[in-house]
Design a protein that fits this description.
22 strands; 1 helix; mainly beta; 8% helix; four-stranded antiparallel beta sheet; eight-stranded mixed beta sheet; Methylamine Dehydrogenase, Chain H
């Protein structure tokens, strides 16, 4: 009987210990410090944003108002732009080498341009919706408003794989504009004031960023669509920029990890 009880105790201890170690560690939460405030075109329905060679590249949405553009960070002035045909609703943008890619929302078609001149170079097709776009040195990452991220070949733009973004056992949806920073993916959560940091290897959430109060609701344009959307990273200057749709400001911020309670 003693041996039997010892065996049961050992089994219960093993199960309890295993369960304890298998529980996911809660992802840290970051807040922010505003370092500088830059001008931003308040008519820009921002869908894509990145920083390259001292210039902001921005993709805007809405039918008849969708554009890709180069923008001066310091003045907010549009330096160069190209419009999409009226039937297309522009979405995320990314540049890989000499080519710039642009998604559209529900047309299942993306556009390829020369990154410097914006000369059209071709198109590509994809199923589902197009939302956010960014790239590493080897992959192009695409969001479609769901819980999944697609990894595309940067040459052919065919899908290599896809993964579900999850916080522990819970999927995280409404993934919108994307930015690749130091080996991690950052994503806007549509209609929220939060960013999520994602491990692109398996999709697990490694951190949350709470940007509440950055642009108070009463200071935003009177539009339900004037939400946080747009992340850009200056790798050489180690600067992080965020903005929103129809926002008159672009913020340079520093992330600050909250102390655990």
């Amino acid at each position: 009987m003693r041996v039997f009880l010892i065996a049961i105790t050992f089994c219960l201890f093993t199960i309890e210990t295993s369960a304890r170690y298998e529980q996911p560690v809660a992802a840290p939460v970051y807040t922010y410090r505003v370092m500088r405030v830059w001008p931003h075109d308040p008519s820009a329905y921002t869908e894509g944003l990145f920083y390259r060679n001292g210039i902001l590249y921005e993709g805007t949405g809405e039918n008849g108002r969708s554009r890709i553009r180069k923008v001066s960070l310091e003045t907010g002035k549009v330096l160069q732009e190209k419009s999409l045909p009226r039937q297309y609703f522009g979405e995320g943008i990314a540049a890989f080498g000499a080519r710039l890619f642009e998604l559209t929302w529900q047309s299942h078609r993306g556009f390829i341009y020369d990154a410097e001149t914006f000369e059209p170079l071709g198109t590509f097709e994809y199923p589902g919706e197009g939302w956010g776009l960014t790239n590493s040195t080897s992959d192009v990452f695409m969001s479609d408003g769901t819980t999944e991220i697609r990894c595309l070949d940067p040459v052919t733009l065919s899908q290599r794989r896809r993964f579900t973004v999850h916080n522990g056992p819970h999927p995280v949806g409404n993934l919108n504009e994307l930015e690749y920073i130091d080996g991690s993916l950052f994503a806007n959560i549509w209609f929220s004031d939060r960013l999520v940091r994602i491990d692109p290897g398996d999709g697990h959430v490694t951190a949350w960023v709470d940007l509440s109060g950055l642009m108070p609701r009463k200071q935003r344009p009177h539009s339900i669509e004037a939400v946080l959307n747009g992340i850009a990273w200056d790798a050489s200057g180690r600067r992080l920029f965020v903005t929103g749709k129809l926002w008159p400001k672009l913020f340079e911020i520093e992330l600050i990890e909250q102390s655990p309670r």
